[in-house]
Design a protein that fits this description.
The chain is an alpha+beta fold and 422 residues long. The protein has helices spanning 2-14, 31-42, 66-69, 73-81, 106-117, 208-211, 377-383; strands spanning 53-54, 57-58, 146-149, 154-156, 162-170, 180-188, 194-202, 216-220, 227-228, 233-237, 242-250, 259-261, 264-269, 276-277, 279-283, 289-290, 297-304, 309-317, 322-330, 336-342, 353-361, 366-373, 391-392, 403-410. Strands 3, 6, 9, 10, 13 and 14 form a 6-stranded mixed β-sheet that branches.
């Protein structure tokens, strides 16, 4: 499945930019003059040797040279012309609102399509831009200040299909001599059977059951972006914390299918204390039941904010029956605003939507989430699930979840101290 998803990344990224050189109506479009600048700016971050890892999804081919790109030209043309790619699922009316938006203009599609239609010509190498120099660390944000790894590898046994396992790592004095504010967090799956990782950080006196309900660091799932916070915003990582890897392993069971895993988390720190502590949490109903053969089934929940709050981003999470998602703000002055609408949810792309400019939710604002599910025979055949079964909240991918994630922070600055808040 990852190879297929990797091609989706390819199709998304190949067509992002637009060349200022190409006249896609009448002019000659060539690789070196017109297409390579697009690839460099928007694609090669992932599509190169040791390219970016999007929560376990790694691009399956390089797009650095003409020889790399030429065999894929027609397949990419078809994907972008049909608007199947890039993998961005927010309604078009939100165009321009989110910092990580992946969308194509008609001009961008036409530039690449003209190149393919004209025979995908190489052009003059002298017109090529200089190669991009990437930092080859294996981490998307550069070199981490701290990498947390399993104390020893974990074996996912042959008979496992779905397994939830919490693996704890205590930060030693050598690893973290003083409390620090997190600027960036990346989760690095250590094997192909990692479906997702949820990260938590808690002081050592917090019990095992409470650890996965507190200290949220975010998580990864197929196609998800890393957590990177602006100056002044962050999560406090306390000295001596216990880092919990809440792992969901998923694979086909059978003899010889067992896999060793050693996943990791990479952290970067702010130089100064964050004045706006970031919280990552969910709006969820939890106690729902989707009837057998339901065409479209709504699950809703809400949360009211007691203080002025920055809304940094949103991420709706469902499983194989997920159909669509909506976040709606009800403001204390009586106005309403649709914050996000995902009309066609794709389980293979757990996309987060981070604002270019954080939205302020005045005290008393209520956010309502609506998640829609389908349990039809058609979806059952497509996803390999049983539509005759009533579905409730559960961990396995054949059950469902109704998690409307929000990343928030208080508008009022806190007196956080130099680092640890002492």
């Amino acid at each position: 499945m990852k190879a297929m998803l990797g091609f989706c990344v390819l199709a998304a990224m190949v067509a992002f930019g637009v060349s200022a050189h190409a006249d896609v109506t009448t002019g000659q479009v060539t690789f070196f003059k017109d297409v390579l600048p697009i690839l460099q700016e928007n694609c090669q971050t992932c599509h190169r040797p040791a390219g970016a890892n999007l929560s376990g999804m790694v691009a399956p081919m390089s797009l650095v040279t003409y020889e790399d790109v030429r065999p894929w030209a027609k397949a990419v043309q078809k994907a972008v012309e049909n608007h199947v790619m890039p993998p961005w699922h927010a309604d078009p009316k939100f165009h321009g609102m989110f910092a990580n938006e992946r969308t194509l203009s008609e001009q961008q599609i036409a530039t690449f399509s003209s190149w393919v239609t004209q025979g995908a010509k190489r052009g003059n190498p002298a017109e090529a831009p200089a190669p991009v120099k990437f930092i080859e660390t294996g981490w998307n944000f550069g070199t981490p200040d701290l990498v947390v790894e399993f104390e020893e590898p974990f074996f996912v046994k042959d008979d496992v299909q779905d397994l939830y396992e919490n693996i704890n790592v205590t930060l030693t004095e050598e690893m973290l001599p003083e409390s620090r504010w997190l600027k960036a967090i990346q989760f690095m799956p250590g094997s192909e059977v990692v479906h997702h990782i949820i990260g938590h950080a808690n002081p050592p006196n917090v019990g095992e059951q409470a650890r996965t309900a507190r200290g949220m660091l975010g998580g990864n799932a197929p196609g998800a972006d890393d957590n990177v916070f602006p100056e002044g915003f962050g999560i406090l990582l306390e000295k001596g914390s216990v880092i919990t890897f809440a792992l969901h392993y998923h694979k086909e069971p059978g003899p010889g299918t067992g896999v060793w895993d050693s996943s990791s988390m990479g952290f970067q720190f702010h130089d100064q204390a964050a004045q706006h502590p970031v919280e990552i949490s969910t709006i969820s109903h939890g106690d729902f039941e989707i009837p057998p053969f339901a065409q479209s089934w709504r699950v809703g929940a809400s949360r009211t904010f007691a203080e002025d709050t920055y809304l940094i981003g949103m991420l709706p999470h469902m499983h194989l029956r997920g159909l669509g998602a909506r976040y709606i703000a009800f403001y204390p002055d009586g106005k309403t605003e649709e914050l996000l609408h995902v009309p066609s949810y794709d389980f293979n792309w757990q996309t987060g939507y981070g604002y270019k400019e954080m939205k302020v939710l005045p005290a008393g604002t209520r956010i309502e989430m609506e998640l829609w599910f389908t349990n039809t025979e058609e979806r059952g055949q497509l996803a390999g699930i049983d539509p005759s079964r009533a579905i409730r909240f559960g961990g396995p991918t054949t059950d469902e979840m109704d998690l409307a994630w929000v990343t928030i922070a208080p508008v009022k600055p806190v007196n956080a101290g130099t680092q640890a808040g002492d």
